[in-house]
Amino acid sequence: MISVEGLKVEFGTKPLFDNVGFVINDHDRIALVGKNGAGKSTMLKILCGLQKPTAGSVAIPNECTVGYLPQVMKLQDDTTVREETRKAFSDATKLKERLEKMQQEMADRTDYESESYSELVESFTQLHDHFMMMGGENYEASIERTLMGLGFERSDFDRPTKEFSGGWRMRIELAKILLRNPDVLLLDEPTNHLDIDSIQWLEQFLANSGSAVVLVSHDRAFINNVTNRTLEITCHHVEDYKVKYDQYLELRKERREQQLRAYENQQKEMADIRDFVERFRYKPTKAVQVQQRIRQLEKMVPIEVDEVDNKVMHLKFPPCLRSGDYPVICDEVRKDYDDKTVFDHVTLTIKRGEKVAFVGKNGEGKSTLVKCIMDQIPYTGELKIGHNIQIGYFAQNQAQLLDENLSIFDTIDQVATGDMRLKINDLLGAFMFGGETSEKKVKVLSGGERSRLAMIKLLLEPVNLLILDEPTNHLDLPSKDVLKEAIKAFDGTAIIVSHDRDFLDGLVDKVYEFGHQKVREHLGGIYDYLRAHNAESINEAIGNSSLRASSAIQAEQLAGNATSAVDAQKEAAKLSYAEHKEQQKKIRKAEKAVKESEERIASLEKRKAELDALLMKNENAANMELITEYSGLQQKLDEENENWFILSSELEEISNH
């Protein structure tokens, strides 16, 4: 599909790539990996034509379409979410206009027997088939399904895009790219702005997509679940591994060991040759052998070993005060924004030394509870912070507090103490600030670079309660490993808000799930949490919790109805027999109506789930019958939910009289 041959890219005198070649085939799922600065993002830009190589070629067939999601892009702010996403179908709109012109031409012409008319009909048929494969005019259902999969609510669709943060607008761009259904998807860190649910949805979407995928990501679980081939950029060339990322790590380790042995053998051979030349350089009887050795040395191609990959950086937090036994205690904590309740009845206790995770959909209150713990926003209920607590808090706005006039090195040098002051360069290298980069001023850094620098600074300060809100968004895999090992060795308490399953695995011993205005505690690690819900993904686990929550609400309603019925019976004793009989008749009729409505909702939701599964399959993407049924069913479901609310209100009113 895409063929790369003899690719060379130079910045200055040192090549980034040299003589690189590989092929991207249909349905390939490729993880593009390599150390920071190896050129992963540059490679994606070259593949999509945004950047030209110094030498070599990238061959892309004319009919092949490419969709590219960069880490950062300029975003539009003059439309609504739905209107902006609808731009994904601009090609379909143009094709429709072309078909209408061809249709008009066929209607106007009368030379039905001519060869040109037959060619026109044939072209129209082919274009119309292509138009229908693209979804025709029925793309609204695809837009809604994709936006909701990426975390948007239906109420968000008609909101202006300028009301959303940069991360949410990046989701809109991702939705547009996915909806275009290109032959090749080039995705540069697509999970940086997604929560766990949206990542799970994207995994399934890519698994069912007919597109080839080239992916750069620091989410190890994500690339393991999505990819089946790994391209490593190392030592200015590309190594091709036809395996998943985890298997690649094993094979790379073996290759590195072989490479290191070959490097050591070559160094020994070169040293022996140099020694021979120096020893016999001035002996006439050895002149021929000396010249042979010199030519042999000149012809030897030095074996390169990527030294950075062989280094291991260990980081330990500085000593801190021993905190009280219970750093955080919440009792009936509630938070409202205007008339919206974010969470209520939050009661939890975090013990000293525990590492806990906050998980759940965006908007369910994870960061809000963190801000309550930090006493940054008001709340109701009781929230106690333990004795001798020193909080280290990392959030996205933490990067804004850095001194812009300091260099990267000086920023860290101000907080480093003891032996760590001798290892500042190693530490900066582990977090992508090695070499000359450490001399850059903070004011010239990007938002992601500032976030990483703020993280390093936090890790060097003496604290006993760490609160980290999405700490891995801008870290590569080695940097995440450094951070993870540091937190595991941390003697204090840690609260981690994260969507990164691989990062949380083996790190946390308790999971708090946020959803439906509640916070539920689950003992054990992130995968214990999944097993407890009989789920393979966090998305499925949260879905199961939602079902249980709905069942609990219904049980409370039934219990409330039962209580109302008892009260009604007491009141009925005061009524005449006829009035009492009429009252019971109305209650039974209302209860039956509510029950029938609940059964209809259950049936509609079951069919909706079946249609979701069918429409996720590539062969059904343009199935007009399924798309029409889905749109109609969603409308019926909304109407029935509204009907259930009205019927339930009527039942409550009748029961209370």
Provide a descriptive summary of the structure in words.
There is one protein chain. The chain has 657 residues and is of the alpha/beta class. The chain has 20 helices and 18 strands. The protein has helices at residues 40-47, 81-86, 90-108, 115-133, 140-149, 166-180, 196-208, 220-226, 245-280, 287-299, 366-373, 408-413, 424-430, 447-459, 477-488, 501-504, 526-532, 538-572, 577-615, 624-655; strands at 2-11, 14-24, 29-33, 55-59, 66-69, 184-188, 212-216, 229-234, 237-241, 328-337, 340-350, 355-360, 380-385, 391-394, 465-469, 493-497, 510-515, 518-523. The strands form 4 sheets. A 6-stranded mixed β-sheet has the order 5-6-7-3-8-9, sandwiched between helices. It has a 6-stranded mixed β-sheet with strand order 14-15-16-12-17-18, with helices on both faces. Helix 3 (90-108) runs antiparallel to helix 4 (115-133) and helix 9 (245-280) packs antiparallel against helix 10 (287-299). The longest helix has 39 residues, at 577-615. The radius of gyration is 31 Å and the shape is flat. The termini are far apart. The mean pLDDT is 82.
